[in-house]
Amino acid sequence: MKPLLCLMNLHVLFFLVFSIPSFANSKHQFVYSGFPGVNLTLDGMASITPNGLLQLTNGTLRLKGHAFHPTPFHFRKKPNETVQSFAVTYVFTIYCIQSAICGHGIAFLIAARNNFSDALQAQYMGLANGYNNGNATNNFFAVELDTNKNDEFNDINNNHVGVDIDGLNSVNSSSAGYYDDNSGNFHNLTLPSYKMMQVWVEYDGGTTQVNVTLAPLNMAKPIKPLLSITYNISRVLLTDKACIGFSSSTGSFIARQYVLAWSFGMNKPAPPIDITKLPKLPREGPRPQSKVLDIVRPIATAAFAIVVGTILILLIRRQLRYAELREDWEVEFGPHRFSYKDLFRATEGFKNENLLGIGGFGRVYKGVLPIS
């Protein structure tokens, strides 16, 4: 019986190992390499597609969407202590018909609540409204990926990353991009390019330093962060528990914002995302031309040119066939012979009915010339 029991235990262990989903969760961390079967708190336009994409907006104008982790996290060990260190990373992409006129981006946020029903869409990104923007009672920390320039918030451009505290006026911001580890040069990235990118947000509870890093997918996290500021998040998150999630909105332009993966760690690095399990993005924009057309088009053009050329040659040959050959003496004394064309018409195409006889020099036809 013991060998049989061991075999059964081994079978159960094998089943458990190979039935692990694409996400793992614990009290202090989680990782979602795609969102199939994930239970998130969603509102507005936000939804999870059948293949596991977290879609924050669906292209409908002037609406908002939110997605939160289903349970809040203890950011303070005790009510009177400061906010602990944490790290977040996520993979996103943004689709716009034209990147220059897009709105309004994605914000990762940590807030005392997950109810933002009073927040507005468009430039407010589902985080605030015209009355409470910047109020200390909002109690949220956010990292915005902003694809629209709003002068009322002193935005630097329409393609930037910013750190927001209780409102949309960023305390620090930078054009979207990354610093090369070798040269140190800055490389621009276009947020609404519909290319997958990865963001890292890290907070050191001891030094109160916030680092935000951005890079294309498949690139290792750059050493130098895009943004680095010192801010005590304990001044924003006043309770020991807080909600984490994403907010997004649309304005006057069509935009679709997606999150493909997300991980979080408290007092530890965010667990690595398995990019091999990321869900596929839907096809957006005009369909690419078929390669068959690229092959058929030049062949059809060449065939058409050959047909047209052949017709022109036949017409020219027909003209030459009926052309009248004049000798020098005919120019001075007038024609003493008729063109083949005139004879052909006069005899109605040399019909047998017009045949008068056959002599030593050929056949003789009667014909009637048109009156000049």
TrEMBL record:
<keyword id="KW-0418">Kinase</keyword>
<keyword id="KW-0808">Transferase</keyword>
<keyword id="KW-0732">Signal</keyword>
<keyword id="KW-0812">Transmembrane</keyword>
<dbReference type="InterPro" id="IPR050258">
    <property type="entry name" value="Leguminous_Lectin"/>
</dbReference>
<keyword id="KW-0430">Lectin</keyword>
<dbReference type="InterPro" id="IPR011009">
    <property type="entry name" value="Kinase-like_dom_sf"/>
</dbReference>
<dbReference type="InterPro" id="IPR001220">
    <property type="entry name" value="Legume_lectin_dom"/>
</dbReference>
<dbReference type="GO" id="GO:0030246">
    <property type="term" value="F:carbohydrate binding"/>
</dbReference>
<keyword id="KW-0547">Nucleotide-binding</keyword>
<feature type="transmembrane region" description="Helical">
    <location>
        <begin position="295"/>
        <end position="316"/>
    </location>
</feature>
<dbReference type="GO" id="GO:0005524">
    <property type="term" value="F:ATP binding"/>
</dbReference>
<feature type="signal peptide">
    <location>
        <begin position="1"/>
        <end position="26"/>
    </location>
</feature>
<dbReference type="Pfam" id="PF00139">
    <property type="entry name" value="Lectin_legB"/>
</dbReference>
<keyword id="KW-1133">Transmembrane helix</keyword>
<comment type="similarity">
    <text>In the C-terminal section; belongs to the protein kinase superfamily. Ser/Thr protein kinase family.</text>
</comment>
<dbReference type="GO" id="GO:0004674">
    <property type="term" value="F:protein serine/threonine kinase activity"/>
</dbReference>
<keyword id="KW-0067">ATP-binding</keyword>
<dbReference type="InterPro" id="IPR013320">
    <property type="entry name" value="ConA-like_dom_sf"/>
</dbReference>
<comment type="similarity">
    <text>In the N-terminal section; belongs to the leguminous lectin family.</text>
</comment>
<keyword id="KW-0472">Membrane</keyword>
<feature type="domain" description="Legume lectin">
    <location>
        <begin position="28"/>
        <end position="279"/>
    </location>
</feature>
<keyword id="KW-0723">Serine/threonine-protein kinase</keyword>
<protein>
    <recommendedName>
        <fullName>non-specific serine/threonine protein kinase</fullName>
        <ecNumber>2.7.11.1</ecNumber>
    </recommendedName>
</protein>
<keyword id="KW-0325">Glycoprotein</keyword>
<keyword id="KW-0675">Receptor</keyword>
<dbReference type="GO" id="GO:0016020">
    <property type="term" value="C:membrane"/>
</dbReference>
